[in-house]
Amino acid sequence: MKKFNQLKEVKEVYSRGENMIKFLKDSDQNKSNSIDDILISYDFQSGSYIKGFSNNPEFASIYCGALAKVINALGPFDSVLEAGVGEATTLCNLTKNLNFKPETTMGLDISWSRLKFAKEFLKDFGRNDVNLFTANLFEIPLLDNSIDLVYTSHSIEPNGGKEKEALEELYRVTKKYLVLLEPSFELASPEARKRMIEHGYITKLYQTAKDLKYKIIEYRLFDCYSKPVNPTCIMIIEKQNDNDNADKNLVCPITFTNLEKIGDHFLYSKDSFLAYPILENIPCLLKENSILAAHLKTNYQEYKTTHNIVYEPSRC
User: Fold this and answer.
1) Rounded CA gap, 42 and 252, in Å?
2) Is the residue at 51 inside a domain?
3) DSSP helix/strand/coil, 298
4) pLDDT per residue over 90-126, tens digit each?
5) pTM of full prediction above 0.70
6) How many folded domains does the chain comprise?
7) In what order do the strands lie in the sheet with 130-134?
8) Do residues 253 and 216 both lie within one domain?
9) Residue pair 218/49 in contact by the 8 Å Cβ criterion
10) Which region among 4-18, 97-111, 228-242 has the lowest average model confidence (pLDDT)?
């Protein structure tokens, strides 16, 4: 979060319609996009995806219908997670086209503001059953093999150079299938490849999945994408394991220990002594959000009795 001291400048860049990630990346002369760059850029852009949806609902319908067709052929599933859910414009349209209703539907995003919009967008469509939470794509606060189907839609995209880390983390929480809708460097035109490099996008997702020896059952250009200079590819990875983990609860992103809800405003791990805020019913589970609170559950009066502490406040 070292770039948070540049937020005033970022707001001015955004108001001028300039590229915020480029500004932030250039400020420290990095060739790749940092987590700070991505978080700040997306948070300021919040609301733009819903605006885009309202301007072109037909595209969203076709795109999500095509994805639903793929998932319906793989399913049904009890649990579904969109990693990088943004404002839920994909998740909302996708789930209404599924032939089944998952018992658990989740969406994570690095930006709290995007989830604020997502929550209200889902509510407009009568959806109050989606579990939204902030998280880092590389530090997902879920246990191994916990979600039947995990999918992305251009959320790994800005993390060029971190393909291996992203794939390993998404694969870790996946129980059955990982479906990736991401830019394809191999299948892109020379113009699109140049653009991907300039923007710090991923360029080795497919090769990395092969190097990791994942079982890729499908890899092709997707049926629908909005920009020829940023073509969407679909890659489906099947995960085979004997671990039938039914625990889909959120965990501490640092220690992966259980979290319990304390009132309406915090989640707490009694094993790691770390607390995480809940802001407008959205759990904030970036590791940077953690608060060390070893005595959160300590009762002060019991503490005094146990330690034979006696004093008279009136005489102090």
Assistant:
1) 24
2) no
3) coil
4) 999 999 999 999 999 999 999 999 999 999 999 999 9
5) yes
6) 3
7) 130-134, 104-109, 79-83, 147-153, 174-183, 232-238, 215-221
8) no
9) no
10) 4-18
- Which residue range is the domain that position 35 belongs to? 2-45
pLDDT over 90 (residue 166): yes
235 is written with which tokens? 């890659």
Rounded to whole angstroms, how far apart are CA atoms 78 and 256?
Answer: 22
What one-character DSSP code corresponds to residue 125?
T
- Give the position of tokens 């994942």: 214
Residues 36 and 114 reside in one and the same domain:
no
Q: Six-digit token pair at 216?
A: 């890729």
Band the pLDDT of 316: cuts 50, 70, 90. low
Question: Taking the CA atoms of the chain, what radius of gyration do you get in angstroms?
Answer: 22
Cβ-Cβ contacts under 8 Å for 14 (sequence gap 6 or more):
20, 44, 45
Give the model confidence (pLDDT) of 34-68 as tens digits: 888 889 888 999 999 999 999 999 999 999 999 99
Tokens for 200? 């710090």
Q: Are residues 80 and 221 in the same domain?
A: yes
Residue 259 φ then ψ, to 5°: -115, 140
CB 239 within 8 A of CB 176: yes
Q: Do residues 142 and 36 share a domain? A: no
Same domain (yes/no): 10, 149: no
